[in-house]
């Protein structure tokens, strides 16, 4: 049968006796239920129309609220499909789905109603899963806003509403079946009337109303037991008094009551049809109509399951009881995440796969509670299952340690997210293993779990960070590697997470159990005891009470936790201020000297952060900020560091929030400021920080890294976003204080700022990748802190930190994967050596610090000695010049004498050869004379 059409013989449209209250009836189906649901969504979208399809939300200033509005305009206006869009664009637009209207969500979903998740399309299916989630949520608010329904009840009601629209679409296409604009259904003992054209619930109308009797169930001929949709539609009179089967009976407790035996009236034996042209297969229509007439004529008391539930069933189909395998995957994906917590697989009663065909003997039926659809769990339906033999009720077996209820809040949250993850990835067969997985990986193994899942399902790192952040409990220990967590920190977190009530069955998983109050209580005790490890663990995700923040910061910085401990510090600050007043008074008038130069530099660098804050704009507060900076520079004999005035302003704002006077807050802020400025690498621009952030960004979001590099903006994130430790980035002062809670609670202190910058870029990757010009990218990046949700930013940054710190463990898998072993991260063996040498390196660092201070003192003494010697140098200049002149003359005379001696030696060396030549000439002349004489 074609989707969206109604093809049946005319004899199947039956006119029933009006005295029974039924005007007309017809059979709908059978067809796959996922097809019926898709047609129902299309019918709802057509009923709502296209009004407001391109009306997107805006801020009060008139600017668009959506970060990727252009992407949705292309989907809704030009008819673009997701398969034609880049994966990065789809991932970036996913955060805006929750801000769309019901009309827009249904329009997007109906255009992609035939999409299926496979291969590289998983990220796009994640986008469609969010569309389904928020579409069903808005539809539920439109219809059942006044009803007090549990999540499971709402899921059943939404399924029924969607199928009613599918049935109405088919009935309107059948000329032989009269129709109506109203549909009747019962929910918790009340008859509700759905007006199809307006998609609203109304009062009981006058005239005929449509209702249905469901005979849906799993297909016995399908090995996967996919659900088949089959309804008997009834056009009834006197709808206000008509009794229909209640979707959620009032007097039943789903998944709580035990199985009970209910007698069943013997049914007729039905022989499966062998006619290939028979559209209903093994359904005996005449038998069903006979049973319908018998059931309507009996005067029986309605049961909780409805007036026609016991005597009216479809003998040709197996009862509405599904197997453990997934049925109707489309609807599971559509509604599983829309209404709260999942139902563990173990709570669903296993079906009997044998289909009863012999009804001659009296049998018994298990009256099982309905199991509404959940995240990947099959729906038990509404039709009872008939086993071969009577089944006696038995007590439920006690749950094992691995499959029992969650032990604490962290395990409960992880179960919820894992069920949603497996349903979205069509891995419903693994839902039964979720309790074991959570029991094994919850806690320290959480980053390892999501690293393995991300590698297995080829998730991009931003998506893996999102899953890890969502599954983290309110308190995390991600700032330490798994094997290096201090015992005090672990005990503190366990004390906070303790007391989570057992969560089983269909009860909603409690994710807000007053954790903030417990964190505050345990944190106060840790601050009083100066337990720094416990304070770091409790404050890493933020301080729950702003009044506690001053003591938290003082403890983390080693200044002092309680006010009593600060008395000595405040006295020291007063004495230091008095000792510096004389030196400052000499130069303040003329603006000369060291203090004068500091004041001039401070005035040349006005505070650029929070100019509208009422506290920081006070004159006495501005003077206190100047005092903190000038006295720190004078005490350290240091120059003024650009941006340090905003850091001092933030610290003073926090210290004044604990009830201290301005003078006390100034003293406390001075000592905290001194510790913070000790690590000036993160205060100003640092080439090393630029390199670290660039390396992290390449690993976690390569498209954004390439975008910044192509526009020459690679240095902008560290220089702008983390400027002056985020005080000049554009965050509100409250948001900046929340970021500092995590920065100071990290045992590696300001290294966490690198993770915050990378996380902020990932959260705004949609806007960044949508820009084409350098100016657009720079403006988007600069505006990101003003639009940031700081708690969500901190939580995602904790996830990035967890992935990075787990690499310190030599056995951990490297995730996100780096490009090569020589670039990015060092090898695991190197990390192992680093962990082994860590104590020695720490000791060497301490010795180096002492040696550095000693060397500084020696250099100072040497400078003073050199200065005194330089003052006496002119006295010796005359004698030095005279000695030099005498030495030069002596050297010149010696050189002349040496030259004459050399010439004499050369002359003597040449004399013997000359004498030998003269003697040879004389002998030659004698020989010639002797030769001439005999001749004469």
From TrEMBL:
GO terms for molecular function: GTPase activator activity. Pfam families: RabGAP-TBC (PF00566). Residues 915-925 have a biased composition (Basic and acidic residues). Signal peptide: none annotated. Residues 350-364 have a biased composition (Acidic residues). PROSITE patterns: TBC_RABGAP (PS50086). Residues 543-747 form the Rab-GAP TBC domain. Residues 296-328, 341-407, 904-936 are annotated as: Disordered. InterPro entries: Rab-GAP-TBC_dom (IPR000195), Rab-GAP_TBC_sf (IPR035969). This is Rab-GAP TBC domain-containing protein. It comes from Noctiluca scintillans.
């Amino acid at each position: 049968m074609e989707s969206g059409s109604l093809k049946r013989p005319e004899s199947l449209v039956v006119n029933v006796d009006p005295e029974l209250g039924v005007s007309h009836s017809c059979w709908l189906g059978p067809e796959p239920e996922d097809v019926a649901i898709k047609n129902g969504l299309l019918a709802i979208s057509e009923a709502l129309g296209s009004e407001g399809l391109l009306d997107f939300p805006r801020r009060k200033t008139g600017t668009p609220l959506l970060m990727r509005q252009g992407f949705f305009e292309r989907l809704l206006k030009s008819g673009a499909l997701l398969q034609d869009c880049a994966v990065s664009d789809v991932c970036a637009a996913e955060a805006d789905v929750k801000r769309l209207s019901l009309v827009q969500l249904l329009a997007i979903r109906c255009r992609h109603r035939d999409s299926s998740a496979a291969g590289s399309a998983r990220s796009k299916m994640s986008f469609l899963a969010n569309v389904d989630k928020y579409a069903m949520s808005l539809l539920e608010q439109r219809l059942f806003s006044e009803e007090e329904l549990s999540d499971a009840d709402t899921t059943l009601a939404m399924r029924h509403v969607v199928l009613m629209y599918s049935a109405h679409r088919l009935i309107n296409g059948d000329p032989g079946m009269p129709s109506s604009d109203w549909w009747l259904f019962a929910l918790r003992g009340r008859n509700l009337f759905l007006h199809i054209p307006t998609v609203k619930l109304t009062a009981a109308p006058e005239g005929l109303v449509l209702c249905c009797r469901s005979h849906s169930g799993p297909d016995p001929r399908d090995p996967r037991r996919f659900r088949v949709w089959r309804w008997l539609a009834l056009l009834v009179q006197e709808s206000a008094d008509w009794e229909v089967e209640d979707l959620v009976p009032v007097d039943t407790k789903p998944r709580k009551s035990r199985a009970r035996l209910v007698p069943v009236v013997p049914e007729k034996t039905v022989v499966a049809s062998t006619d290939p042209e028979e559209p209903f297969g093994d359904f005996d229509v005449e038998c069903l109509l006979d049973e319908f007439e018998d059931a309507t004529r009996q005067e029986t008391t309605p049961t909780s399951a409805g007036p026609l539930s016991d005597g009216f069933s479809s003998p040709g189909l197996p009862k509405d009881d599904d197997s453990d395998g997934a049925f109707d995957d489309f609807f599971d994906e559509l509604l599983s995440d829309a209404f709260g917590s999942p139902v563990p697989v173990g709570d669903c009663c296993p079906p009997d796969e044998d289909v009863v065909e012999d009804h001659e003997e009296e049998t018994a039926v298990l009256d099982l509670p309905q199991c509404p659809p959940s995240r990947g769990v099959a729906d038990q339906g509404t039709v009872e299952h008939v086993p071969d033999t009577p089944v006696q009720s038995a007590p439920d077996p006690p749950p094992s340690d691995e499959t029992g209820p969650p032990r604490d809040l962290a395990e409960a949250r992880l179960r919820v997210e894992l069920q949603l993850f497996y349903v979205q990835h069509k891995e419903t067969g693994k839902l039964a293993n979720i309790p074991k997985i959570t029991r094994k990986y919850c806690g320290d193994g959480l980053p390892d779990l999501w690293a393995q899942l991300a590698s297995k399902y080829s998730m991009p790192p931003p998506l893996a960070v999102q899953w890890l952040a969502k599954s983290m409990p309110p308190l995390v220990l991600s700032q330490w590697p798994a094997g290096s967590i201090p015992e005090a920190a672990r005990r503190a977190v366990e004390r906070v997470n303790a007391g989570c009530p057992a969560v089983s069955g269909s009860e909603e998983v409690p994710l807000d159990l007053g954790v903030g109050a417990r964190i505050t209580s345990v944190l106060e005790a840790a601050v009083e005891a100066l337990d720094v490890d416990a304070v770091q663990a409790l404050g890493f995700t933020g301080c729950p009470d702003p009044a506690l923040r001053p003591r938290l910061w003082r403890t983390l910085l080693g200044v002092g936790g309680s006010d009593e401990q600060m008395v000595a510090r405040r006295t020291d600050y007063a004495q230091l201020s008095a000792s510096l007043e004389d030196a400052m008074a000499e130069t303040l008038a003329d603006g000369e000297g060291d203090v004068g130069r500091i004041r001039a530099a401070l005035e040349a660098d006005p505070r650029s952060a929070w100019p509208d804050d009422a506290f920081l704009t006070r004159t006495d507060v501005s003077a206190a900020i100047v005092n903190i900076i000038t006295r720190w520079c004078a005490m350290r004999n240091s120059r003024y560091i650009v941006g340090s005035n905003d850091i001092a302003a933030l610290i003073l704002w926090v210290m004044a929030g604990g009830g201290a006077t301005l003078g006390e807050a100034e003293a406390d802020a001075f000592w905290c400021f001194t510790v913070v400025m000790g690590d000036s690498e993160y205060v100003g621009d640092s080439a090393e920080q630029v390199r670290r952030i660039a390396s992290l960004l390449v690993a976690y979001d390569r498209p954004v890294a390439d975008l910044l590099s192509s526009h020459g903006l690679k240095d902008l994130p560290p220089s702008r976003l983390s400027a002056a430790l985020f005080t000049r980035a554009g965050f509100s002062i409250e948001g900046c204080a929340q970021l500092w809670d995590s920065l100071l609670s990290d045992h590696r202190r300001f290294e966490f700022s690198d993770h915050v910058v990378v996380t902020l870029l990932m959260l705004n990757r949609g806007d960044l990748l949508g820009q084409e010009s350098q100016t657009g990218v720079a403006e988007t990046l600069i505006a990101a802190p003003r639009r940031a949700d700081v708690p969500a930013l901190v939580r995602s940054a904790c996830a990035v930190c967890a992935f990075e710190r787990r690499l310190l463990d030599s056995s951990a898998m490297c995730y996100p994967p780096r490009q090569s072993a020589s670039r990015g991260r060092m090898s695991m063996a190197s990390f192992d050596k680093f962990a082994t040498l860590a104590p020695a390196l720490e000791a060497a660092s301490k010795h180096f610090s002492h040696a550095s201070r000693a060397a500084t003192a020696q250099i100072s003494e040497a400078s003073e000695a050199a200065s005194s010697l330089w003052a006496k140098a002119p006295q010796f200049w005359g004698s030095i010049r005279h000695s030099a002149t005498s030495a030069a003359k002596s050297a010149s005379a010696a050189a002349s004498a040496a030259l004459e001696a050399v010439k004499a030696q050369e002359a003597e060396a040449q004399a013997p050869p000359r004498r030998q030549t003269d003697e040879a000439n004389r002998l030659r002349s004698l020989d010639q004379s002797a030769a001439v004489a005999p001749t004469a």
